[in-house]
Aldehyde dehydrogenase (Mycolicibacter sinensis), 485 residues
Amino acid sequence: MALQSVIDDLAKRPGTGELIPVIDPATEEQITEFRDAGPEAVDEAVARAKAAYQSGVWTDIAARERAKVLWRLGDLIDEHAKEFTELESLDAGMPPAQAEMIVSTCAEFFRYYAGWCTKLNGASYQVQMEGGVNSTHANFHAYTHKEPYGVVGLIYPWNGPLFNACAKVAPALAAGCSSVVKPAEETPLSAVLLEKLIAQAGVPDGVTNFVIGYGATAGAAITAHPDVEKVAFTGSTEVGKQIMRDSADNLKKVTLELGGKSPVLIYSDADLDMAIMMASMGIFVHSGQGCVCGSRIFVQRSVYERVVAGIAMIGDNLVLGGPKDEGAMISPLVSQKQLDRVLGYIDQGKKDGVEIVSGGYRLDRKGYFVKPTVVTGVDPATSRLYREEIFGPVVTILPFDDDDEAVAMANDTSYGLAATAWTTNLARAHDLGKRLNAGMVGLNCQLTFDHNVPFGGYQQSGVGKEFGYEGIDAYLKTKSIWAAL
Ligand code: NAD
């Protein structure tokens, strides 16, 4: 499917709400526009999903058949990798090599979860009960049975559209759920192609239903809908809290993958060249629009100056640009809104008297580009730039003297998504693995990911996990069944 036909299909989607422009963030030009799907479209999508679920057309087929469909879908995504790469580049402004790398991981979500389809087993228990209500039966066989949630809502952000979609659609399908899926309004293009491939792979009508619209309209309607049993959401902590509140009325279950302000500890005994390079890419890649980006770096005092200079130098030399810019390594921010947000934090920092070591300004060209920005001299107690998630290419660097101080500073946050420690002292590394208060800790590595390893945050960075077995268990209910012997 050619790029233009995806764009045309998006523009033709039915909807009742206002027109939403799709903007190329690297040029600020409008690619197309489409109508906000709105609450009516959500009602229809939920009705379709519920009917499909109740008919058993997907849930009741043999697990090995579901697995084959998922595998086929993975292969189709691979076959269309070039188109997906173009779509993600255009929509999110990503340099093609970055988009290609992300797209290459997406098909695997379907193959990975295809494997789980045939392995969703409960457990069995032998129970002896003395006396009890039914005194004739002292022995019981009890077992658990795994059942899919009926209709689930899957809501995801713009920072890796296809990746986020696949991370949710694949386990939901493998578990046997029907779903209503909402991409971010800023980056809807890859969803249009994915929707087509889902049908082509053999997922029956009504099982996976995309609605494309605003969060406040389509998204909120999914969360409020009484027939949606569970919502799996990736996005900001603020909206995650709103979703939890909106889900309270019918006690919907939620999985929330939220924001972060992830610490990176660099010790003087670390492989410093590697640590400086990885810590730089760990914040500047995709202009800092990654949930696990390490936006607070702490450096042992004896190597502090060297690390600050090294990260600033790398930030200065990274080539920013969009898909059409020769040699571009770093994408723009996704929207004017995101640009205003990031520049607002930088301005606030300047008013607070922080030191901007490098960057700190918007590029003088079209597109939402902010120069990678290194900040020192923040007051950890009061600086908003230091404490709040910016989701941009802005990093604060502070010195520390010993382990206790480093851990205390790293853990002094309401978030808890990821943390990293760079040190060649093995005992210290594993000790930090336990002491850092985050759902994911990298020891001498950053930006690591595997479909089989649980992903998710502590504290206000989330509820529940994605990926691995926990990622599919999030779409399953556990029923206990008792049989009197
Ligand atoms: P966002 O919370 O504004 O939006 C995310 C999605 O929620 C979008 O589809 C949006 O339309 C929808 N939405 C907005 N308001 C809604 C509402 N009231 N009800 C239902 N849905 C609603 O987030 P964003 O700005 O698009 O993305 C950036 C955020 O996502 C950052 O905070 C980042 O850390 C987080 N994120 C987290 C992870 C993770 O795995 N932990 C991964 C990627 C991004």
The first helix runs from residue 3 to 12.
